[in-house]
Structure formats: structure tokens, C-alpha cells
Amino acid sequence: MKTGIGMEPQRIDHLFDSAEARFDQWRRLHKACQSWAGSVGKQGAAARKAASTALFGEIVPAEDFHAYPGARLLATLRDRIDGDDAMGATRLVQRISQALILRSYRRDASEWDAHDDPTGHADLTPLPTMEAGGRPYFEVLYVVPTPPARWPAYSQQVRRLRRSQDQFIYEPVFVGNLEDAVLATLLNPQIQAVVIHEGFPWASTHNLPLLSEVLGATLGVDPLTVGPGDHGLTLARVIKSVRPEVDLYLLDDCRPEDVVSDPAASGLRRVFYEVEEPLEVHLAILEGVDERYRTPYFDNLKKYAQKPMGTFHALPIARGKPVFRSDWIRDMGEFYGPTLFLAESSATTGGLDSLLEPTGNIKLAQDAAARAFGADKVFFVTNGTSTSNKMVYQALCQPGDIVIVDRNCHKSHHYGCVLAGAQPYYVEAFPLTAYSMYGSVPLRTIKKALLDLKAAGRLDKVRMLALTNVTFDGHLYDTRRVMEECLAIKPDLVFLWDEAWFGFGRFNWLYRRRTAMGARQQMTEWFADPRSLEAYLQQEKAFGADLDPADARLLDARLVPDPRLARIRVYQTNSTHKSMSSLRQGSMVLVGDQDFHHHEAPFHEAIFTHASTSPNLQIIASLDVARRQMELEGYELVTHAIALAIEIRKDINTHPLVSKYFRVLEPAEMIPAEFRPSGLASYTDPDVTWAQALEAFRHDEFVLDPTRLTLVCGTAGYDGTQFKGILAADYEIQLNKTSRNSVLLQTNINNTRSDVANLLRVLVEISRKIDAGLKDGGAPVQAAFAKRVKSLMEDVPGLPNFSRFHDRFRSDPSVSTLEGDMRSAFYMAYREECCEHLELHDPEVDRRIKEGPPLVSANFVIPYPPGFPIMVPGQVIEADTIEFMRKLDVKEIHGYDATLGLKLLRPDALA
Ligand SMILES: Cc1ncc(COP(=O)(O)O)c(C=O)c1O
Questions:
Q1: Which residues, in sequence order, are bridge partners of residue 569?
Q2: Phi-psi domain of 357 (left: phi exceeds 0; alpha: psi -120 through 50; beta: other)
Q3: Element containing residue 241 per DSSP (H, E)
Q4: How many helices and strands, by DSSP H and E, does the chain display?
Q5: What's the N-to-C CA distance of the chain in angstroms?
Q6: β-strand partners of 56
Q7: Within the chain, which residues score under 70 in pLDDT?
Q8: How would you classify residue 432: left for phi > 0, otherwise alpha for psi between -120 and 50, otherwise beta?
Q9: How many CA atoms lie within 13 A of 807 on its CB side?
Q10: Which of 526, 613, 614, 686 qualifies as a FRET site for 56, CA 20 to 30 Å off?
Q11: Which of 175, 173, 124 is nearest to 147 (CA)?
């Protein structure tokens, strides 16, 4: 049986089916029952009944892991199917299907009733008490050793605990073994808490090959070798590793004190003595969810907005009076509504707190974010990750420190170096020349940089490694491996992971291991494990305690750090607004640095330098709310975004017409084979399984984030900018980045299946037009089209690498390492007498490249696309960069004025 990533779900442990895949199954069952109900003739009816029975059989196992429709409705449905009641089965399936899609079962108790018309019927078992609208709904998983026949009674006991003053309402879901418990937590995103009763067995009665692999990899345990015994703490560990946000409660009949002292119990929220008052467990569950639900800053801002307030300070727009009283700007008030203005203030009193030195609600909100994102500390930033990055550079680097940095990183890193006076040592990502883009920086390149710096006696100057994870185009690092291997060479290296696009990665277990904070957690656990020291001592035997930079074997060996020396110092910046529900410019700095106490004061200086003294309250509140959402439904939303992305890939790449002109690039095209030892080449090939994708996420040097889709449009005769314009102007579809022959689509937590359907519709329409145009235009049009496609797909300019800094900006020109004093070059360009201009096509440019004196860039030159600086201040410009500039056909080039030409530092100023 094929269970490819892009295939329809066929097996219970198909881990990334979206909620919609479940809805689809119910819809298919509905169609099957409808067709059965409408069939004429005995034979036809029998065949259609068989089809409905088979579909029902496929649906049922996974439904065990959801509260709704639940055992009673499923039993009724089974009875109707078995009893040849095709009409009754159809009605019930339709009702269940709609209740699932509309989520009405969360509010409307009648959806749980087995009768089609609940009035006049009294079900034997009481229905859950629910009320319209109102309280947020979730589900709680109970893992119990008791036989399933006892579960309905337990279920009723749980429901009877509900009180009208409860803030939330929840429904129980029961499973009887560890494997089913893990599966339920993975498959049912509504589960917010797990109540574990000790004494349950390990193995499921379902056939779960994929889950067994996941468990094996997560726990390092072969399920077949597990013996009898208590698995409560093991289960807690697995659930924490896949969904850390879920609250765990253990009910044990041993002394709870003994359990708590077991280190494995650290993931439990509470331990109860088995016979304790069930109401206590109920209250603990509600409190646990409330802790995540609470948004200290936003809650207070709402209260603040309700208060009558006289203001005698700045920000007259606060409370909206000048807006609503004005004849001239009232429309603004009508557009935004009064709440926005009531929630505006320039005060830091009234619980509003100060972003620059938070001690109240902002601090509480930041602490909650630290919990959610797995960091020690979080700083909210209201000027985007452009500012977050600069803050980190300023806080951690002193003038003269070396930062190893991906040359293709966001400009804030380059400017961060200028502001902090740090010397960038640029490392190059692997190129994807055919699509005019770069990938990520190979670990070998990073290690070589560190070893070269060591050989040059400059390792002590190296402060930080800064990398972009995920890159714009979807390349994800093996963050743990990068950090461990670098720490083997330089044990106090600081890591800045620019996860501007990847903040959401924390909330799905597939991604989490590749986030900065996920890797930090794994490293912390590993360094505390005695096996890490053994591994290091093995390496020491082979390579010595002091690694010799001349030893070429080091580049290929999997280096391990000395856990006694290595410091875990990890920073992450993320544009919360790019992947979560924050207003624009909402960003965070996550700190996971065991030596942060040495940097606390500089960090505050950096905040004072960069943060506005008038931060936008709505942005701060939205950061708080974005955190709440991700802690409560991030798992569902991110899983859904992945599922949609796979669907888009499959739809486009297999559509007979669309795939003639368009294609979404697969891992094989985005990541060279040498970085993909797993061999994972495609997310849509039906022979590829999730097990292979997991293997890639575990071991490959780079993996492709499935939610970032590079759509090749050059084969349809469009360059990226042109195609982006057409989609926006003619079809109201917006997207972000383009390259010479592609555009980047991205699925996010906001996308729906309708978006996917609309995109496909548009691509079909465009493909049809191209098809018709080519047919009607005959040979001349076809030849012109082929020429255009060839030009876009084959005549692509080579991507220039960073050359070198001019000797004037190198501390020691006699050493071969690449770092340079970019800041001095940057400021030299402020002096007009030090600068000159040369037109790009002036033959003098070519002459000077050949004969000198060298051309030295006075500033950053950043074309969009590709969006990274192809020249930086102080860089010697070489022929490939000039050729690239001359071939560039983009309009937007920051730092370059075509009428003046290249801005250069004059040779006499450099003398
Ligand atoms: C990798 C990377 N880092 C940082 C930023 C800056 O983020 P922001 O737009 O939040 O200032 C961007 C923006 O696109 C980015 O792509």
C-alpha cells in the first residue's frame, strides 16, 4: 500500500493529514451512502453498501482519537449501515460531516445526539452539557489501563465535573496504551492536556509502522524490545518532545513524591495520587489551559481601553477625540473603529508597562513567550527583525570582533556589523544558478572559515556565527549539527539564527528539531548525558585535544565538542508578523545563552539604542496574542500549512495542463544531492513516504521547508517580476519574492483550501491562454515563445561570490582570512572627496579590473531580486560582479544610481 506524502490518507498513522483530509473522508462516505440510498436493484445496492461499509471501516480507527463524533454516534452509524438503513446512514453521515466542518459540535449538544430529531427522544446516556457560543472548547486525552467498556462511565464522570463558571469546556478522549496515546496527541490537535493513569500497556492493536519508526527515533527505543512495567513517564517524555505545549498530569497509586523526584517527571504539570478528588484534576486542567490563554499585556490593554481617561500628555489621537470630532478625518475613525483609539496611549502607567524596561505586563508577556518558544528570555521588538538583528549585533559584538556570516543574509546583518564595528567574514551559500538564487552555507565552508581563522591565530577574535534559517527559498539547516561542530573548534562561539521566517517552526515537531531553540534543548540534554563526554574522548584520541587546522580530515569528520568546555549560547530572531498573528513589525529576540548574565547590561544598551521610546501598543499586544494562539492552536495551524503546501505541490506538478508550463521545485532541484544523504528527492512522488521525509529532517545537512514553494514560471515565458505583477493585477494573488525565472509561494497559518483551489484555477486559466496563444499564433509565435523560455531558463547570469576586502580594510593583509573592517569603508564613503563614480558600461571599468587600481565599492549594492548585497563597502569589485550587474534586468537596485554609475572609493583615499 502506498502512503506517499502527497497521497490520500490510507493509514491511521499518516502523520500530516490536515483536518481537511478528515473532512474529505467523511464527505466521501456521505457520497457513498447517498449513492447507496439512491440505488435501484438489489445488486447495485449491495455493491454500494459494500463501498460505504469499506469507507466507514477506513474512517473508524482514526476517529477513536477524537471526541466527536464519539463511540455512540459511530455505533449508531454502524447499526444503520449493518441494518441496511441507507437513508438513515446518509442523514447521520451528513450531520456528522457538517458538524465537523462547522465545528458546531463544540457548542451545540444536539450534535452529539444519535437521533436525527432529538426532540422527544431521551438518550440513555446523558449528553454533554454545552451552550451556544461562549467558551473555548478543547479535548483532554485520558490514557487508562481499564478496558474500553469502562470508558463511557469515566467519560460521564468527567462531564459531570463541568461548572457554569468554568472558563473553558472540554470533552474527554480515551485510549488504552502508549502508542495510541502518542498517535492521538499527534493526530488530534484539539488535545490540550493528557491525564495519564499508570498501568497501561505499550503496544497498540492498530498496525502502526510509521509511528513505531517515529517513536524509535524520538526515544531511541525499539518498541519491540519494551517489556512490561509503568510507561507513564516514558509517555510524558514522548508527548513533551512532540507537543511540548500540552499539559501532562500523572495519576499514580504509588507515592507521588517518588515519581516527582524522577528527573523524567520534569515534563509533568502535576502528579496526583490516583484516588484524589477528580474535581482537583478538572480544576488543574482548566488552570493549565488558562495559563496559556492568559495574555497579560493584551488583557490589560482591553481593560485600559474601557476606562474613562483624561489625557494631558502626548498622542492626541489616543481616545480618538480629534478624529471623531473632526469633519476632515472622521473617516479614519469610522474605518478603524473607536477601539483602536481607546487602546492607544503614550503612558506607561495603568499596567501598560514600558517596553524599554519592562517590569509589569510586558515582562509577563515576554516570560510567557519564552515558555512558548523554548527560550530563557524573550525581548519584544516593535520595529521588525531588521531591528532585532541589529540589537543582537550591538549587544554581543565589540569593534574588531569577527562575525562569520552568510553573505546572502538580510541587510540588517550587514548594517549590524557596520554599527557594531564587527568585522564580517563572509561565507558563501551553495548557488542555485539555474534559478538565480542561493541555498545555505555548507557546514564544511563554515568549519573551514573557523579552522583558517585558527591557523591565522585569530580564532579568539571570532565572536559569532550568523545564519539564516529558513532561507527565503526554504533551506533549513541542521542547527544542532552546525552548532556542535562549530563548538568543537571554538567552544564559546555565539550563534545568531535569523529565523525571521521560521518562528512558527517551534510548533510542529517535524520542524522543531531544526529550530535554534529546539537544537539548543537537544544540545543541553546531550551535554548532560555522560555519553557526550565519551564521544568527545573518542574524538580526542583520533584528533588530539587541540584540533590542528591543517588536518584536512576535520572538514569531513562529524566533530563533537567537549561538553565540559562548550558553552551553549544561542540567539534567535523572528519576525512574528511573518508567520504568526502579529501586526506588521512585531518581532522577537529569543535568548538561550547560558552566559547571558555577562551580556545583560549590553543588551539593555542595545534596546535603549534601537527601540523607539514610543513603541506601538497594538504591536506589543499582538505579539502577546500571537503567542497565545501558537501555544493553543499552533500545532494544528502549522500542520495544516504543511499539508496545504504538499497539496499545492502535488496539484501543480501533476496537473496535465498546468505542469506543461509551471512546476514547483522539489528537494532534488533545491538541494544538491551531496547535502541529502537520505536521498529524499520529492515531496510529491507517490513512492516517497513520510518515513523518508522524517529521515531527511533527522539527518540531511539541508532540508527543504515544504511550505516554501518555488514556482518556476520561466517555462511559461514569464520572468519572476512579470509573473508576480500578473498574479497581483489580474488575479488578486499576492506573493513575495521573485527570481529571474521563478516566484516564491508560501503557505502560512492563514491559508485555506479555497486559496489552493483558487491558485490552481488561476494557473489553469493562464496555462490555457498560453496554450491557445501558441496554437493560434502558429510557428512564429511558438518560435518566439521557445526563445523567451530559453533565455529565461538557460541564459542565466552566474552568481558572483564575495571577492575580498581591500587591504586598506584588513587588520593584517598578510594573513589570508577574509574578514574586513567594513565600518571604516562605510564611513569613508561619507566624505565626498574620498568617492568617485564610474558608469557601469564605461570601458574604464574593465580596464581597471584588468590593470588596476582596483575598483573598491563605497557602499552596499543590493538588487531586488536577489535581495542580498552583491557589493559591500570596502569590497574589491571583480569581473563577475560587473558582468552580473550588466546582465541584471531588475529595476530596484538599492545603493546604485544608474545615472551616476558605481560609487567607488578613490584609489588615492585608499593609499
Ligand atoms: C532573513 C530575514 N531577516 C530579517 C528580515 C527583516 O525582518 P523585518 O521585515 O521583520 O524587519 C527579513 C525580511 O524580509 C528577512 O528575510
A1: 593
A2: beta
A3: helix 232-242
A4: 35, 25
A5: 72
A6: none
A7: 1-18, 117-133, 214-229, 255-256, 275
A8: beta
A9: 9
A10: 686
A11: 175
| Ligand 1 centroid – CA 690 distance (Å) | 31
Nearest-10 Cα torsion for 452, 457, 460, 462: -30
468 CA closest ligand 1 atom index: 1
Rg of the chain on CA atoms, in Å: 30
d(CA 48, CA 661): 40
Strand partners, 467: 497
- pLDDT value at residue 221: 57
> Angle CA(502)–CA(757)–CA(685) in degrees, nearest 5?
65
pTM summary value: 0.94
H/E segment holding residue 572 = strand 569-574
Residue whose Cα lies nearest atom 10 of ligand 1: it is: 384
What is the spatial distance between Cα 415 and Cα 424, in angstroms, rounded to a whole number? 10
Residue 344 CA to residue 314 CA, distance in Å, equals 11
How wide is the angle at C-alpha 328 spanned by C-alphas 325 and 331, nearest 5°? 80
Strands (E), 189-261: 191-197, 247-252
Report H helices in 655-752. Answer: 658-661, 667-670, 690-699, 720-731
List the alpha helices (DSSP H) in 11-129: 19-37, 42-63, 70-82, 86-102
pLDDT at res. 124: 43
Q: Whose CA is nearest to atom 7 of ligand 1?
A: 385
- Dihedral sign from CA coordinates of 139, 141, 146, 148: positive
Index of the ligand 1 atom closest to the CA of residue 587:
10
Q: How far is the CA of 566 from the centre of ligand 1 (A)?
A: 30
DSSP 8-state class, residue 739: -
Instruction: Supply the pLDDT for residue 228.
Output: 58
pLDDT of residue 315: 84
DSSP code at position 131: -
The CA distances from residue 74 to 159, 190, 358, in Å, are 19, 19, 53
The reported pLDDT for the residue numbered 346 is: 82
CA angle 217, 429, 483 (to 5 degrees): 45
Counting from 1 in the atom list of ligand 1, the atom nearest the Cα of 472 is 16
Q: Does residue 575 have its Cβ closer than 6 Å to ligand 1?
A: yes
CA gap 393, 412 in Å, rounded = 10
Strand partners, 380: 588
d(CA 909, CA 537): 53
440: Cβ below 6 Å to ligand 1? Answer: no
Q: Residues 6 or more apart from 83 whose CB is under 8 A from it?
A: none
Is the beta carbon of 385 within 6 A of some atom in ligand 1? yes
